[in-house]
């Protein structure tokens, strides 16, 4: 296997730690990404110039409600084998906040072929801004596309990685087309206006496994109206899930597989969302 697969061998658990030159984050960083997103996006009123939001996913007005199910929204692979994704970080973030964002951007280069770099004059790029909560479009949209990381609630390593994975083309784990084989959605416990977050998407999963430890998997009580679980795994209802604080090995593996950067990644341990 090439370097990107080899680097997975350095990981000791389902969550990958990148601890050098890290800005100090408060104890909320220990919460799962699902809990952080729910808290940050609760009772938001987006500005008039912001996109329609479905949770933390921005919906393009000119496309249908099944985001990014074609390769047209993948980022370009260059001759060196890497995927170079331009970005800008708005100047309203403090140096400490920029360090947290930069840590998330740089973490992809440690174990994948994704290379985020500061935009010069590229047409298509990510514009990382302090907007209404945490959100991103799914996949490459063309021109400037907002990745919102609100200063209040979104500046954690897990949320940065989560929103960047959306921008790279991934949807939430619980919306997989085969999720009913792995979790039972307890519709009766979900707040009515958030039931859309559990609707399945017609994904083509390429025979890959469901990842309970994915940073894209929401937690057991996500959008609960009565403090009862909204998702129950099976056949073992006691298995832990939705507790990721950083990308899992499967997240890394599937990203390399999606972008053709790891010829011999373990097919039983990755999950592709939104692509065939």
Description:
By secondary structure, the protein is an alpha/beta fold. The chain contains five helices and nine strands. α3 crosses α4. The relative contact order is 0.20.
The ordered H/E elements are HHEEEHEEEEHEEH
Spatial ordering of strands, largest sheet? 4-3-5-7-6
The helix/strand class is alpha/beta
Portion of residues in helices? 10-25%
**Total domain units:** 1
Strand tally: 9
End-to-end Cα distance: 23 Å
CATH architecture: 3-Layer(aba) Sandwich
Our Rg estimate from Cα atoms comes to 17 Å
Describe the secondary-structure layout.
Blueprint: H1 3-6, H2 33-40, E1 52-54, E2 57-59, E3 83-89, H3 95-111, E4 114-118, E5 125-129, E6 134-136, E7 144-149, H4 157-168, E8 183-185, E9 231-233, H5 249-258
Parallel strand pairs: 3-4, 3-5, 5-7
Antiparallel strand pairs: 1-2, 6-7, 8-9
Provide a compact summary of the structure.
The chain has 276 residues and is of the alpha/beta class. The chain has a single domain, classed as Collagenase (Catalytic Domain) (3-Layer(aba) Sandwich).
Offer a few descriptive terms.
disordered C terminus; 9 strands; 276 residues; metalloprotease; globular; hydrolase; 18% helix; single chain; Collagenase (Catalytic Domain); two-stranded antiparallel ribbon; alpha/beta; zinc ion binding; signal; disulfide bond; 5 helices; 5-stranded mixed sheet
């Amino acid at each position: 296997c090439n370097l990107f697969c080899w680097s997975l061998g350095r990981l000791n658990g389902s969550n990958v730690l990148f601890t050098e030159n890290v800005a100090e984050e408060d104890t909320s960083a220990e919460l799962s990404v699902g809990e952080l997103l729910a808290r940050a996006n609760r009772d938001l009123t987006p500005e008039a110039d912001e996109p329609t939001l479905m949770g933390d996913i921005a919906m393009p007005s000119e496309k249908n409600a099944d985001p990014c199910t074609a390769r047209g929204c993948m980022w370009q692979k260059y001759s060196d084998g890497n995927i170079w994704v331009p970005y800008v970080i708005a100047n309203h973030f403090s140096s400490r906040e920029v360090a947290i964002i930069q840590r998330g951007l740089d973490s992809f280069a440690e174990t994948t072929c994704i290379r985020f770099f500061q935009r010069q004059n590229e047409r298509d790029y990510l514009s990382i801004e302090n907007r209404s909560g945490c959100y991103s479009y799914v996949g490459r949209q063309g021109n400037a596309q907002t990745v919102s990381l609100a200063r209040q609630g979104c500046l954690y390593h897990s949320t940065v990685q989560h929103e960047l994975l959306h921008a790279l083309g991934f949807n939430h784990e619980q919306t997989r087309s085969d999720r009913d084989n792995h979790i039972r959605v307890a519709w009766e416990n979900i707040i009515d206006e958030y039931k859309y977050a559990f609707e399945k998407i017609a994904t083509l999963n390429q025979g890959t496994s469901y990842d309970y430890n994915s940073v894209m998997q929401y937690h057991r009580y996500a959008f609960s109206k009565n403090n009862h679980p909204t998702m129950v795994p099976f056949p073992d209802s006691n298995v832990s899930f939705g507790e990721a604080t950083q990308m899992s090995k499967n997240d890394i593996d599937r990203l390399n597989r999606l972008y053709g950067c790891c010829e011999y990644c373990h097919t039983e341990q990755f999950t592709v969302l939104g692509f065939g």
